[in-house]
Amino acid sequence: MVWPGRHRGGFTTAPATAPTAARSVPPPVLPAAVLALVGCEGRQSALDAAGVGAQEILVTGWILFAGGGAILMAVMALALYAALVRPERFPGRRAWVIGGGILFPVVTLTALQIHEYALARRLAMLAPEPALVVEITGYMWWWDVRYRVPGQEPLRAANEIVLPAGRPVELRVASADVIHSFWAPSLAGKIDMIPGHVNRLPMVAQRPGLYRGQCAEYCGAQHALMAFDVRVLPAGAFDAWMADQRRPVPEPATSVLARGRDAFFAFGCQSCHAVRGTEASGLVGPDLSRLGARPSLAAGTLPTRVETIAAWIQGAQHIKPENRMPSFDVMDGETLDAMAAWLESLK
Ligand code: HEC
Ligand SMILES: [Cu+2]
């Protein structure tokens, strides 16, 4: 994919968060089955569980798959047998109807119902008294994130969720416009984000690492570019991270960065964006306080680099048509570079 920009003559990049490298393997070389299995691993896979909820759902998924597979085989074998023998020689005709057609489904479906009921209860009770609540609001087409720790000021961020490993956390999801759906398959089940209503998703991430999620409910033209990153840190590292977030962004260290910051205010970016410790406090767009530390830009659309930030500022409407940020294609290249460098330095 080639993104625009007179800036450095444009550049080529793969999407920030290609789910798997398998796509580069020429299909004739490997059987399709192998390709399909490769797709099961990685940072956005319900089959590679790294959270308690995802693990429970995975086990249930395998039970359904194995049970359904066994029943399919048995029915197929019976059907084959029935086709081969003469009808009057097929043993126990009535018993099959009553046993296979009524008793068996009643027993298996009841057992499954009880299992699912217990599962739903366990999932709902994962974080009864959460020490951390993360409020996530879906916008067309990005994610506003607020961390709430009892007794502390809420902390605002965007497009990336950082979680402590092993600690129960409650996600509270809502929407600012249309229905979105929050789904990080490696960590937990999917949950709808509904305007005017808050849904709760208790979560315990187990394995530190970088995961990916995305909007799972069609929400308009750029629904496909509405992804997010989840960074799971060891609990101690998470506490240090949280404390560090409250620090205002540092003064620009070089004259170029200072020029970038000044241009940010001169072009009015602060009317939509907030940067902690500056007078920028806009709420229309993502908080940019730690933009440089996030793995991806514009909700998983591009990897975060000075070049991609510059390309975004200049061509937001080209990269993600109809999103709510105008393209700023009027500034000179040096100003653009400086602005992108300043934003990238916010870590
Ligand atoms: C009218 C409001 C508005 C203005 C003005 C605006 N932006 Fe944005 N900006 C947004 C919105 C909304 C998004 C989210 C777009 C999306 O991903 O759908 C965004 C996204 C971004 C992002 C990506 C953020 C992330 O979390 O990855 C950057 C960087 C950014 N804007 C920089 C700027 C800069 C620099 C300016 C000034 C030159 C600016 N914006 C002006 C609304 C605005
Ligand atoms: Cu969406």
Automatic annotation (TrEMBL):
UniProt keyword Amino-acid biosynthesis, yes or no: no
Q: Print the keywords alphabetically.
A: Copper, Electron transport, Heme, Iron, Membrane, Metal-binding, Respiratory chain, Transmembrane, Transmembrane helix, Transport
Catalytic reactions of this protein: 4 Fe(II)-[cytochrome c] + O2 + 8 H(+)(in) = 4 Fe(III)-[cytochrome c] + 2 H2O + 4 H(+)(out)
> Pfam families in the record, alphabetically?
COX2, Cytochrom_C
Q: Does the keyword Plastid apply?
A: no
Subcellular location as annotated: Membrane
Q: What does this protein do?
A: Subunits I and II form the functional core of the enzyme complex. Electrons originating in cytochrome c are transferred via heme a and Cu(A) to the binuclear center formed by heme a3 and Cu(B).
Its membrane topology is listed as: Multi-pass membrane protein
Domain Cytochrome c intervals: 255-347
Q: Where is the Cytochrome oxidase subunit II copper A binding domain?
A: 129-244
The UniProt similarity line reads: Belongs to the cytochrome c oxidase subunit 2 family.
Its gene name is: coxB
Designated name of the protein: Cytochrome aa3 subunit 2
